[in-house]
Each structure stands twice: as C-alpha cells, then as structure tokens.
Design a protein that fits this description.
300 residues, alpha+beta, nine-stranded mixed sheet, five-stranded mixed sheet, 8 helices, 21% helix, 28% strand, disordered C terminus
C-alpha cells in the first residue's frame, strides 16, 4: 500500500486480513478529480482542505482543559472491537417472544468525565476494558471547543453540500479512541466527511455492490447495517462470498478528510502501537437514488 505519509507508520501496525485492497485515491481539495469522485459516489481522501484546522491543537491536555466537567458518552469493550447495535431494537427483542435471537450486547455505554476517560486511557493495561469516547459536538462541550468548532472551514463543507445536492448537516461526532480500536464493517445511510485530527486511522471501504459478499444482519436485528463476517477469523463455510469482496483502503493522517459515500461499507481501525486517535465526522442527509436500489438487497 502506497501512502505519502507512510513514514509515520508501517505495515506492521495494520491488522492482517485475507482481502485484496485497492488504494483510495488522494487528491488536493482544489483538484477537479476530487469533485468528480464525489459526484460519482466514490470515496476520496481530500488533502489541504483545512476543514478542521482549528482543531489541530486538540490534544488530550487541551481537551481536558477546555471540555469542562460534563459527562461524556464512552463505550467500553472487553476486546478491540466496538460493534454498533441499535438499543431500540434490543428493547424490542426483549419485549418480543419467539424471535429466535439470543443477543448479547458487545459493548457497554457509560457516562464519564473527560478527566477520568483520559486517566484510564493513559493507565490502560492488558486485561482492562478498552475505551472509545463518542460525543456529539454541541454547546455543552465548553466555550473554547465551541469556538474552535465554529472556526472549522464551513465554506468547504457548505460548498460540497451545495455542489453535490446533499441534504442538511445532521450531526458532528467527536471520536477519541485507543490505539488498536476497531469499528467493524458497517454502512451508514448518510454522506460522511471523516476528518482526522490526531493520530492515524486505517479505513477499509467496500462499494454497495459488495453487499452480498458482506452478509449483513437482518433488518430487525440490533446489528442491522453491520456485516456478520468476523474479519479477524472469517468463517468461509458460512460466508463463502466474502473471499470475493473488493476492498478499498487508506490510512488517514492528521488534517486529511475521507469522503465516505452513503451506503459504502466501512471498517475503521486506529492503527496498532500508534497512540490514541481523534476524529470528527460530518454527517449529511442523502437524497441519493441508491436508497431504492439498496432496498432490493435488504434481508427481511
């Protein structure tokens, strides 16, 4: 895998998967090929956008100083995987009889002071729960952080939103993860600008055409929109088409932005032995026609 910032990491820091990868293109924000790819609903690493330049000072010390004493959303996991589940569907399963699904929540969501989160992050040792902070950016995160947020390059975002007919911005999520944390393969129903602030994240993407190779959970399952395949130990007797899945990848560094198109599957990992990572994503509603296309494949 080629990468212009590879001097800051090496391939031994990437988890090994039995997949063949194509590198995601990397272009300057002013390069017309960037918008060409976005218009085609294809991923691209966008360089020099300065989208979150005002957040480049967001190291742990700065965040601890300025995010105050509020409680923030932190997920705990006994292993390196932080697999999303729909809490409402868990409640529905618990209220229904005869569904035939024995669901065990893979992570635990807790409220935690940032100072406690950072302390546990720094003191973590093997055998402890892994941690992943996932907090919406709003006016509760402290005035300095809000000021930095307001000073993001919104002209860049608004330009992409207008040019490519995206719907409104729905959410900005601050992600602070431990080295080696993994968000397993899933897809979202929104457009995503994924802005890396600190550290390095490996992003593995699959186009919607690979839907059948990734074996999604049924829509009524709490892991709806997630792949049933364990990338670490794929069971080819259950998931034989996974061998044929066509994957794209890039390692995203500070200041770089990955466009993740709506319905593209993505598997995200903070590289191993690379320290913690900080990311902000920008989710936009999508009016893309693939909504209709995807309904043909969803498991009922």
């Amino acid at each position: 895998m080629s990468n212009e910032k590879k001097s800051n990491w090496d391939s031994s820091q990437l988890r090994k998967y039995n997949l063949t990868f194509t590198e995601i293109p990397r272009f300057d924000c002013d390069d017309p090929r960037t918008d060409e790819l976005i218009s085609q609903q294809k991923p691209v690493v966008i360089l020099n956008s300065n989208l979150a330049a005002s957040a480049q000072k967001w190291n742990l010390e700065y965040l601890e100083t300025h995010m105050g004493d509020a409680d923030y959303t932190v997920y705990l996991s006994r292993n390196h995987k932080f697999k999303y589940f729909d809490e409402k569907k868990v409640q529905k399963l618990n209220g229904d009889i005869g569904k035939g699904i024995d669901f065990m929540q893979p992570t635990k969501k807790v409220d935690m002071k940032l100072s406690e989160f950072i302390r546990r992050l720094k003191e973590w040792k093997r055998g402890d729960d892994r941690l992943y902070l996932q907090q919406g950016l709003n006016n509760t995160v402290g005035p300095e952080i809000v000021r930095d947020f307001v000073n993001f390059n919104w002209e860049f975002c608004n330009g992409k939103q207008s040019k490519h007919n995206w719907g409104p911005l729905t959410y900005n999520l601050l992600l602070i993860g431990m080295e080696g944390n993994v968000t397993p393969c899933h897809y979202d129903e929104q457009q995503n600008l994924f802005a890396q602030i600190y550290g390095y994240k490996r992003c593995i993407l699959f186009p919607p055409s690979e839907f059948e190779c990734l074996y999604p959970y049924p829509v009524h399952h709490p892991h709806d929109r997630q792949s049933m395949v364990d990338f670490d130990k794929p069971d080819y007797s259950k998931f034989p088409k996974f061998k044929d899945a066509k994957a794209y990848e890039s390692v995203l560094g500070p200041g770089e932005v990955l466009y993740i198109p709506v319905y593209w599957w993505h598997h995200i990992e903070s590289i191993m032995r690379g320290g913690h990572t900080i990311t902000v994503n920008f989710w936009y509603k999508s009016y893309f026609f693939r909504i209709v296309q995807m309904q043909k494949y969803r498991i009922r």
